[in-house]
């Protein structure tokens, strides 16, 4: 689901040229509804990641970092500005890094609370 989000935003950088040559894409299909649609796929991504965290008995830190990772970039990107679409795409590794940070912080917090040596 996250792939749909970042790829759709990325496609907006050249949607004008795509229309000129008759190419179709999710960016063209979604058009002005891109942010709500990408928000929905982001919510789906966050829900699936949260479910995985729940099944793995993750703590609150994991969920906080997941929420941050999912929405921060999407909320500040203007899909009508190609440079911002490219930046959004290039910052997608940050999503994975924030999720990893949440897992690490959660694991460390769990070990500290349980008295398990790091």
Essential attributes:
elongated, 118 residues, mainly alpha, 7 helices
What does this structure look like?
The chain crosses the membrane at residues 58-76, 88-109. One of its GO terms (cellular component) is mitochondrial inner membrane. Its main location: membrane. Its cofactor is Mg(2+). The chain is an all-alpha fold. The chain has one domain (2-114): Four Helix Bundle (Hemerythrin (Met), subunit A) (Up-down Bundle). Helix content is 78%, strand content 0%. The chain contains 7 helices and no strands. It has helices at residues 2-11, 15-20, 26-30, 34-55, 60-76, 82-90, 92-114. Helix 5 (60-76) packs antiparallel against helix 7 (92-114). The model has no long low-confidence stretch (mean pLDDT 90).
CATH topology: Four Helix Bundle (Hemerythrin (Met), subunit A)
How many discrete structural domains?
1
Count of DSSP E strands? 0
CATH class call: Mainly Alpha
User: What is the N-to-C order of secondary-structure elements (H for helix, E for strand)?
Assistant: HHHHHHH
**Main β-sheet description:** none
Total number of helices: 7
Distance between the termini: 34 Å
Secondary structural class: mainly alpha
Fraction in beta strands: under 5%
Question: Given the C-alpha coordinates, what overall shape results?
Answer: elongated
Mean pLDDT: 90
Tell me the quaternary state. Answer: single chain
**Global Rg:** 17 Å
Please bin the fraction of helical residues: over 70%
Low-pLDDT stretches are: none
């Amino acid at each position: 689901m996250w792939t749909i989000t970042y790829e759709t935003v990325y496609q907006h950088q050249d949607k004008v040229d795509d229309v000129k040559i008759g190419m179709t894409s999710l960016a063209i299909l979604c058009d002005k509804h891109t942010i709500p649609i990408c928000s929905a796929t982001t919510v789906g991504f966050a829900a699936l990641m949260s479910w995985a965290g729940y099944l793995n008995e993750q703590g609150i830190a994991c969920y906080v970092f997941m929420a941050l990772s999912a929405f921060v970039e999407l909320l500040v990107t203007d899909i009508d500005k190609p440079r911002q679409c490219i930046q959004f795409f290039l910052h997608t590794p940050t999503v994975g890094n924030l999720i990893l940070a949440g897992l690490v912080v959660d694991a460390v917090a769990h070990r500290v609370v349980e008295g398990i040596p790091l």
